[in-house]
Amino acid sequence: MVDKVLVTGGAGFIGSHLVDRLMNEGFGVVVLDDFSGGKRENLSSHLGEPNFCLVEGDVRNEADVKSALEGVNAVFHLAATVSVDLSVKNPLLVNEVNVGGTLNVLRESVRADVKRFVYASSCAVYGEPAHVPISEDHPTKPTSPYGVSKLAAEHYCKVFCEVYGLETVCLRFFNVYGPRQSMGPYSGVISQFIEQLKRGKPPVIFGDGTQTRDFVHVDDVVAGALCALNSEECVGNVINVGSGKETSIKKLADILITLFGVQGIKPRCSTPRAGDISRSCADLSKAERLLEYKPRLSLKKGLKQMLIEQVKHENVSEG
Ligand SMILES: NC(=O)c1ccc[n+]([C@@H]2O[C@H](COP(=O)([O-])OP(=O)(O)OC[C@H]3O[C@@H](n4cnc5c(N)ncnc54)[C@H](O)[C@@H]3O)[C@@H](O)[C@H]2O)c1
């Protein structure tokens, strides 16, 4: 029975929501994070709790991973360098952390007799899709070093399942959004639009805004990850985790403008970004079959909830 889990990258955006849920469900939780992208405040409600342990360390470091795995029987491996742009600027670092780090955590997990290993992969492994919705057997042609690193790590997970009997599951997350998503030059389009609207500026769209993405709320992603811990059928598989809905960037900007209630602001189109794909949308049939996964939050509802939580958080920080 799984009673103690390790979440690598647990101080990050998705990882910290997963930690909240696991703590709520009564698991013992260890977080391994080097705080290169994550924040201590994302874990503040758990620090000092008896069934919570924080290991500040690096997934590339054998001793750090060994110590984080003590008594653990399942791993959620989320730690990664996540920025596509950064991966173009520094592909070696991304390879070291995302591939080398994953290999290190896999090897130590086998040594520590871990049962289940859930890997946070990405829709970036597909590259420009030949068709949507994208099912897991769609060809993988990543268009960035980041996408290559996520795909290489998936292959290691599969081999570790077949060769060492570690129960690995790879979840291909689509565009995840929600509270605690990082703001900054490398953050996702939703965070950037919110930042721009907060400053009273129009959202800046790269290209004409007809490009589409599958935006999935972090609560749905966490629910999918929990299913991957419990389902027997999913072992050895790669599975999409998205919303199953295709939304254009123009539509996203319009939804946010409406939610902000700002008059007279229209999105502004600028030069398309090199390497951006034109469409994306997850086929969720496999997730439904193997994980009984069903996303619950619509984009409008999820964004509204995210904005309300942000305002609450900002009020608390200021007060
Ligand atoms: N956010 C998305 O839309 C999305 C989509 C697809 C896949 N993913 C995957 O989900 C996972 C989590 O992403 P996120 O959006 O929460 O990003 P994030 O940057 O918020 O979280 C990543 C965490 O990993 C930690 N980390 C980075 N390098 C580390 C290292 N060497 N050792 C230990 N910890 C390290 C960071 O400090 C951070 O807390 C990643 O594996 C990412 O590739 C995310």
Describe, in plain words, how this protein is organized in 3D.
The chain has 319 residues and is α/β, with parallel strands linked by helices. Helices cover 40% and strands 17% of the residues. The chain has helices spanning 13-24, 62-68, 84-89, 91-111, 145-164, 189-198, 218-230, 249-260, 285-291, 299-318, and strands at 4-8, 28-33, 52-56, 74-77, 116-122, 167-173, 175-177, 204-206, 212-213, 215-217, 238-241, 247-248, 268-270. The strands form four sheets. It has a seven-stranded parallel sheet with strand order 3-2-1-4-5-6-11, with helices on both faces. Helix 5 (145-164) links the parallel strand 5 and strand 6. The longest helix has 21 residues, at 91-111. The model has no long low-confidence stretch (mean pLDDT 95). It binds nicotinamide-adenine-dinucleotide.
Please describe the structure with a list of short key phrases separated by commas or semicolons.
40% helix, seven-stranded parallel β-sheet, two-stranded parallel ribbon, 10 helices, globular, binds nicotinamide-adenine-dinucleotide, single chain, Rossmann fold, alpha/beta, 319 residues
